[in-house]
Each structure stands twice: as structure tokens, then as C-alpha cells.
Write a structure and sequence with these properties.
The chain has helices at about 5-25, 45-55, 70-75, 85-95; strands at about 35-40, 60-65, 80, 100. It is an alpha/beta fold.
Amino acid sequence: PQETDSGLVLCLSSTYVPARKAMDLARKMNTPFTDANILVIGGNGPSGLATIELALLEGANVFTTADERHHKFLTGMGAKCHPVDPKKWLPTLKGKMDVVLD
């Protein structure tokens, strides 16, 4: 539509299209991620937020890494947050993820 903000369209497409493409590449035989465990590295950035939202819409269990100051927001979205430092989350999550997106 003519009243659509072209800048907004560009922002949305530059974050959600790559997120969707990454998920599609990780997908097995075009199946949804229902109950899959997905780890999104850097969930507080634009692409991470888009990936979290899309994965949650498919019914995935979403885990993410982010700075502590972003945990409340990300938890409110439905993600389970972990610190950025892999030494702090890798022992807990190692071998439990179906997909890891960075």
C-alpha cells in the first residue's frame, strides 16, 4: 500500500528474512520446530530478536544468550536467557540443543 513506510519495510525484511532463511536451513524435511530446543546466540540484536520470535511462533523451546540487562525483556518474550560467556552456559546446554543459530 502507498501509505507503507519504505524504511520500515526495509528494516523488517532485513531482519526477518535472514532469520527465516537460517531457520529453514536448519529445518529437517520442512517440519516445524514444535518442541525443538533452539539456542539463539546474541538474542538481543535485531536478527536474534526476529529469530526468537519466529521460533516461538513455531512452538520451539528457545534459549538465548544476551547481556544481563536484556534478560527481563527476552524472558518476557518467552526465551530462556543465559549469559554471553559460553563458560557459563555451555556446561548446562551442551548436547541438549536441536539447533544453534548464531
